[in-house]
Each structure stands twice: as structure tokens, then as C-alpha cells.
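[job 0412] stage=fold_complex status=start
inputs:
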Amino acid sequence: MRRAFIFLIFLSFLGFTKEIDPESKLVIDRGLNEVKENCIVCHTGRFITINGGDRKFWNTKIKVMQKAFGLWELDKKTKDLILDYLSKNYYKGWNKKKTKNKERSLKLKLNLQ
Ligand code: HEC
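[job 0412] stage=fold_complex status=done
writing structure:
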């Protein structure tokens, strides 16, 4: 137990563990503010943390948000920051099993299949 703890501290020094923002429960990184202002105003960050994908994946999600749920237009700079943030911290497979199920259920919901 103590060994594992020391190992964790070691990892965090190396930058392997990420700091989590207590308010949004999302990883602290460049772009988090934009995500907070534009994404987690309607829902919690959980929708983000159970997903994962590359820029294209997140770009599609933003489009879905805009088409189906009333997300406003984002200017290019904000959108880029959000996409950088999401594809860097919530990439495909970072949380594999859950992503797949959630994907399927949203596709069914929106009749995208
Ligand atoms: C205007 C309100 C609104 C905003 C702003 C918004 N969303 Fe959503 N979002 C929703 C709603 C409504 C749902 C569906 C909730 C449900 O399924 O019950 C949702 C669901 C989601 C989901 C889960 C469904 C899926 O596709 O897997 C993700 C991921 C998501 N939002 C990401 C984002 C991101 C990223 C942003 C910022 C760019 C954002 N949302 C901004 C309203 C919003």
C-alpha cells in the first residue's frame, strides 16, 4: 500500500496524473475555461468524461449540440481551444467501454443510424 502510494506520487511528478478541477470534475488544462463557459452550462462535465475521441469526433459532438440541443455558434478561436482541449484530454479509448455504449445510445436517440 505504502509502495503504491509512493509510486503514485512519483508518477504525478512525471506528469502522468492530471489535476482535476473540483468544480467541473474535468482535467485542468488550456481550454478548460472555454469548455466551462460553453459546454457545461447545460449539463455536467460527465457527458464529456464518458466520451472520448479525436478532433473530428468532438467536432461532430459540437455539431450535434448545435443542431439538436441549442448550443450557440462558437467563434473559431473558442472552438479551436475547445477542440484542442477535448481531443487532448478526452481522446478515444481513454475510457473505452463506456464510450461505446454511450455512442450507441445517442445514435439511437437521434436516429443517426
Ligand atoms: C444549450 C445546451 C447545451 C450546450 C451549451 C451543450 N450541450 Fe451537450 N448536451 C445538451 C443536451 C440537452 C444533451 C443531451 C442530454 C441527454 O441525453 O439527456 C447533451 C449531451 C451531450 C453529450 C452526450 C451525448 C453524446 O453525444 O455522447 C456530450 C458529449 C455533450 N453534450 C458535449 C457537449 C460539448 C462538448 C459542449 C460544448 C462545446 C456541449 N455539449 C454544450 C445540451 C447542451
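[job 0412] summary: The chain has one domain: 19-110.
[job 0412] exit 0
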